[in-house]
Design brief:
With 471 residues, the protein is of the alpha/beta class. It has helices at 22-31, 81-87, 91-97, 104-117, 178-181, 198-203, 214-226, 258-265, 269-276, 280-283, 288-300, 404-407, 417-429, 458-469, and strands at 2-7, 15-18, 39-43, 121-123, 125-133, 138-146, 152-160, 162-165, 169-171, 188-190, 207-210, 234-237, 310-313, 316-324, 328-335, 340-346, 348-351, 355-357, 396-399. Helix content is 26%, strand content 22%. Strand 2 (15-18), helix 1 (22-31) and strand 3 (39-43) form a beta-alpha-beta unit. It starts with a strand and ends with a helix.
Length: 471
């Protein structure tokens, strides 16, 4: 490996993106026609992969296909999902399929098609640090170029006036289960790796799925369909009070509009934090069709008498966990409403316990003196998705999907990707290459501020009366 960093010789770029997931890919696609911008995007993985462990056959994304990378900002873009279909001679089959929600695997293929044709994307580039150079008024971005085996091959550095972070999230494992996940002989895996271990899980005598959101439901349904009638051997546990449907009413979905994002960001910090704990059903519930499919499959297994060997219990948390010998796991459970405890022995566990924001502290360590934080030491983010920095920093550091504490429940939603990318590009260019709507929801999320009605002075009223009557 070359230990001397290669310094890119050209003038500083206008924008460097860190991470190539759907959100930064959206930004790259919308930036592509803006020829005045010099951009580059870096990703440590060898290619685009969108939750590969959860591309279960038949699983759909929870947003309509119009929530692709670009359409809601520019439906004429060459990078739309419909243009992807056209490029593959599949427009007519899609038309007759009459599907508003597409499969996850299809969305993954669409994004990979964009990465295959869009310039300026650099895979196998691991960004190590971002610093501000006050002498040159630019950000320094250090990276390591990786070889085909993921090993360090060369060091590099690029300079840029602006940065956008789109490093995504990482699987969350509850503390009681971390020791088990770290022990390779015990089959305790996060749902993010489900397909990699599916064959082992299908043949395990007993499997427990933990997590009552969409991923947990999809994993439970897939295992249920794969196991013989009467010998299912499945437990499904969740902390929520019910296996509840995701909010999908038309007015409820308006929480995922720019209008609600602007409203949420204007709220006091303590109100935002309180709201975040109450809105779980907006984004952590289960698609109603998936719930129906689970019930249909369970009902089908009762047709010849008897009940399937399954237990579905909400309102349960895992207190502790441990191994029994080397092949079994014991979960110590507590029911939050009954205030009762029990133990469950199982042969494998799938953790559908969600994702947490990937920590930025290491990456942004060199910028720490410039970062402005809130009362809980979280970075402050303005309405253009910029981290609030010391005024001496003249460049902008934007974030994608790292601002839920400031911008609300829509932060990780694919439906807001194109709008957020357009907002960032409008801010960077100082123009409006992507005009955005002033209003996007029928709901008004707060009281409108009107000037109080003030009675007109008597003299003015009389004068107006005289004018009307021609006096």
């Amino acid at each position: 490996m070359s230990t001397t960093p290669h310094h890119e010789a050209h003038a500083p770029r206008d924008l460097v993106g860190i991470g190539i997931g759907p959100f930064n890919l959206s930004l790259a696609a919308l930036a592509h026609p803006l020829t005045e911008l010099d951009t580059a995007f870096y990703e440590q993985r060898p290619r685009f992969d969108w939750h590969p462990g959860l591309l279960i056959d038949g699983a759909r994304i929870q947003v309509p296909y119009l929530a692709d990378l670009v359409t809601l900002a520019d439906p004429t873009s060459p990078w739309t999902y419909l243009n992807y279909l056209k490029a593959h001679d599949r427009l007519f089959p899609f038309y007759f399929a009459e599907r508003f929600h597409i499969q996850r695997a299809e969305y993954d293929n669409y994004c990979r098609w964009v990465t295959d044709h869009l310039p300026g994307l650099h895979f196998r580039h691991q960004v190590d640090a971002v610093r501000w150079n006050p002498e040159r008024d630019v950000f320094e971005v250090d990276y390591t170029q990786l070889d085909a085996d993921g090993e360090a091959e060369a060091l590099g550095r690029t300079y840029t006036r602006n940065v956008v972070l789109g490093v995504g999230s990482e699987p969350y494992v509850p503390d009681p289960l971390k020791p088990l996940v770290e022990t390779p002989t015990v089959p305790v895996i996060h749902a993010a790796d489900y397909l990699t271990h599916r064959d082992t899980l299908v043949t395990a005598p007993h499997v427990t799925v933990i997590g009552s959101g969409q991923s947990g439901a999809e994993v439970f349904l897939d295992l249920l369909r794969a196991r013989p009638v009467g010998h299912e051997g499945l437990h499904w546990l969740g902390r929520t009070e019910a296996f509840a449907p995701m909010e999908y009413s038309k007015l409820g979905l308006e929480h995922f509009t720019p209008d609600y994002t602007r409203y949420f960001r204007a709220l006091p910090e303590n109100v935002r934090d309180r709201l975040a704990t109450t809105q779980w059903q907006l984004h952590k519930g289960i698609d109603a069709d998936t719930i129906a499919a689970i019930h249909d499959e369970l009902y089908r297994r009762t047709l010849h008498g008897g009940w399937p060997d399954t237990v579905l219990t909400p309102g349960v948390r895992v207190r502790t966990a441990g191994r029994i010998a080397t092949t079994k796991i014991e979960l110590h459970l507590e029911h939050t409403q009954q205030n009762t405890r029990s133990r469950l022995t199982t042969d494998a566990v799938v953790l559908a316990t969600g994702y947490h924001d990937r920590p930025l502290d290491r990456l942004l360590a060199g910028l720490d003196p410039y970062l402005r934080r809130d009362s809980r030491d979280r970075p402050r983010v303005d309405n253009h998705f910029r981290l609030v920095l010391d005024p001496t920093v003249t460049g902008a550091l934007h974030v994608q999907n790292a601002e839920r504490h400031t911008h609300g429940v829509g932060t990780p939603d694919l439906g807001l990707a194109a709008w957020r990318s357009a907002t960032i590009l409008n801010s960077l260019t100082g123009k409006e290459p992507y005009p955005l709507p002033a209003r996007t929801a029928f709901t008004t999320f707060g009281l409108e501020h009107h000037q109080p009605h003030m009675p007109q002075p008597r003299q003015a009223t009389q004068t107006l009366t005289h004018l009307i009557e021609g006096r």
